[in-house]
Specification:
about 260 residues, mainly alpha, about 70% helix
Length: about 260
């Protein structure tokens, strides 16, 4: 039974012709142009700014309406991010071609980050403006750019980022789904802690990849890796600041 399930999943997630024959080509594959990313990010920032100020004078949507919307949004975000397999690809060959199942799922992952912009709309519609922080908007914008850089530079180590980020989002959206159906777990802090662990783990893998690059035959997309490391460092600093403001100070007040 287990072998049948494994064979079925392997065919539909790896060996299906649409996946195994996939090739990412800049300017031809959907969403593969710099102009596309620029327009999407600009539209997101403009819509967020405009709606944030317009919603102040409009009535809030009731929680009975927001809960099913949030539940459906979380479900779609999880199911659109099916990259739950570990690809042992920390260092791609320098001449790596952007084709095959690995880059197919990277493309799906990249496009799913646009779908996740929808949670900002739900926050604004619910007038939960305290949650509409700089970290929230910055995180959405930078992650979309990171995913584009992964594909464009054929960046080594991105499979690790896909797997860890997908895992964190399963936990995060699982928490919000439970909140949406009226069951608020007590482990909200763990969502932030898992995100911090993801960044620290990423830097550890980066060190391993750099050792392979400089003392081995080289790794594909090294400049993309530097770009990603700089973004991750900024996000890590913001997450630590967020955790300090929201949890450490709260703990001190409770003492």
């Amino acid at each position: 039974m287990a072998s049948v399930v494994h064979s079925t999943l392997t065919y539909w997630l790896v060996n299906h012709p649409k996946i195994s024959n996939f090739t990412w080509t800049e300017g031809e594959t959907f969403g593969s142009a710099v102009f596309f990313v620029s327009v999407v990010v600009s539209a997101y920032l403009f819509a967020t700014f405009l709606l944030r100020h317009a919603m102040v004078s409009l009535p809030s949507l009731g929680p009975r309406i927001l809960k099913p919307i949030m539940a459906v949004g979380c479900t779609l975000s999880i199911t659109s991010d099916p990259t739950t397999r570990f690809f042992n690809a920390i260092c791609f060959p320098v001449d790596m071609k952007p084709s095959g199942p690995l880059f197919f799922w990277a493309q799906v992952f990249y496009l799913s980050k646009i779908l996740e912009f929808g949670d900002t709309l739900l926050i604004i519609l619910g007038k939960s403006f305290r949650r509409l922080s700089f970290l929230h908007v910055y995180h959405h914008v930078t992650v979309l750019n990171l995913c584009f850089v992964w594909l464009r530079t054929r960046q080594s180590m991105f499979p690790v980022g896909v797997v860890t980020n997908s895992t964190v989002h399963v936990i995060m959206y699982g928490y919000y789904f439970l909140c949406a159906v009226g069951c608020r777990p007590r482990w909200k802090r763990l969502v932030t802690d898992f995100q911090l662990v993801q960044f620290v783990f990423g830097f550890g893998i980066l060190a391993l990849m750099l050792s392979q690059h400089y003392f081995g035959s080289g790794c594909s997309g090294i400049w993309g890796s530097y770009f990603t490391a700089a973004f991750n460092a900024s996000l890590l600093a913001l997450f630590f600041n967020f955790r300090s403001k929201n949890y450490v100070k709260k703990d001190n007040r409770d003492d």
